[in-house]
Amino acid sequence: MTNDKDLLTVRNLVVEYFSNQRPLSGEKLKVRAVNDISFGLKRGETLGIVGESGCGKTSTALAILKMIDSTSGEILFDQISISSLNKRKFRPLRQKLQMIYQDPFGALNPRMAVRDIVGEPLKAHKKVRNRKDYDSKIDETLEIVGLSREMGKRYPHEFSGGQRQRIGIARAIILKPDLIVCDEPVSALDVSIQAQIINLLEQLQQDFNIAYLFIAHDLAVVQHISHKVIVMYLGKIVEMASREELYESPKHPYTQALLSAIPIPSPDLEATREIKMLEGEIPSPLNPPSGCSFHNRCPLSKPECTKNSPKTTKITNSHSVACHLYS
Ligand code: SF4
Description:
Layout: E1 8-18, E2 30-41, E3 46-50, H1 57-64, E4 72-77, E5 80-81, H2 87-94, E6 97-100, H3 104-107, H4 114-124, H5 131-144, H6 161-173, E7 179-183, H7 191-208, E8 211-216, H8 219-223, E9 228-233, E10 236-242, H9 243-248, H10 253-260, H11 267-272, H12 303-307, E11 312-316, E12 319-322
Parallel strand pairs: 3-8, 3-9, 6-7, 7-8
Antiparallel strand pairs: 1-2, 1-4, 4-5, 9-10, 10-12, 11-12
Bound molecules: iron/sulfur cluster.
């Protein structure tokens, strides 16, 4: 699911690191956080990446932003291979790639006024001609995200969670990026505020043709905003599909379990909902199971699943799954 027109292309990405845990032998243990994943993302499109904690979704995002090193594979941004660029060569591209964090309060400097926080990237990338230009860009950006000029004079602790996330979004869009990595940007917010932030992100996408890599731990959050969805488990992509295909015809038992956990907003339908409970915890990436890494939790596991890792099978041009049931 990658092609030449993609804004972002990820090919066979592997991210490994050494664990802090040391066995009695004292040798360093290597963790494969991202295990040979490939995907593409077009301008103006949203790709949801979903999975439990430890599935590799955040490591994937950090490798794309070059905040951690990738071990092997290739990352192309706007047809430029960024995996091999050093920091100095990557810097001009970095302004086109921004990030919105899960905890906006932790990501905002509490001692800086909001307008200085929002304007900081302009100074860092030398994108302002003079003070007037700087001030007008900040005022314009605050207004775009639904904050007033007056609010810019206040400090982060004076804002609600939703408003703080708007500040984080203002900071991310002020350089007019092509791609924003949204790392669980609404997980810490109330449901009604979540909807407002998702609506704002969608509006910004329409107005500025921004692509989003939207990371979440459940499929309910990404359903509305995503054009395509990737489901990850223990470092691998287990299913990838357009939104319609994934939500209407999920194939992988793990995707099916995640989907069955989403409450239905109709009391009658909710009463008949069949929840496919996931047994046990996600295994440690330090010691992944043999064969299919989901086999110890899968209700449909068969003998082959404990021995052989399933290959990816194409269901349609935009839908693929890694499971022996379809190979
Ligand atoms: Fe379940 Fe086997 Fe498919 Fe893995 S390969 S998801 S264990 S049926």
